[in-house]
Amino acid sequence: MGFRKDFLWGGATAANQCEGGYNEDGRGLANVDVVPIGEDRFPVITGQKKMFDFDDEHFYPAKEAIDMYHHWKEDIALFAEMGFKTYRLSLAWSRIFPNGDEKEPNEAGLKFYEDIFEECKKYGIEPLVTITHFDCPMHLVEKYGAWRSRELVGFYENLCRVIFNRYKGLVKYWLTFNEINMILHAPFMGAGLYFEEGDNVEQVKYQAAHHELVASAIATKIAHEVDPENQVGCMLAAGSYYPYTPKPEDVWAGRQDERENYFFIDVQSRGEYPAYALKEMERKGIEVVMEEGDKELLKAHTVDFISFSYYSSRVATTDPELLEQTAGNIFASVKNPYLESSEWGWQIDPLGLRITMNDLYDRYQKPLFIVENGLGAVDTPDEKGYVADDYRIDYLAQHVQAMRDAVDLDGVDLLGYTTWGCIDLVSAGTGEMKKRYGFIYVDRDNDGNGSLKRSKKKSFDWYKKVIATNGEDLSI
Question: Can you count the helices (H) and strands (E) in the chain?
Answer without folding.
Answer: 15, 16
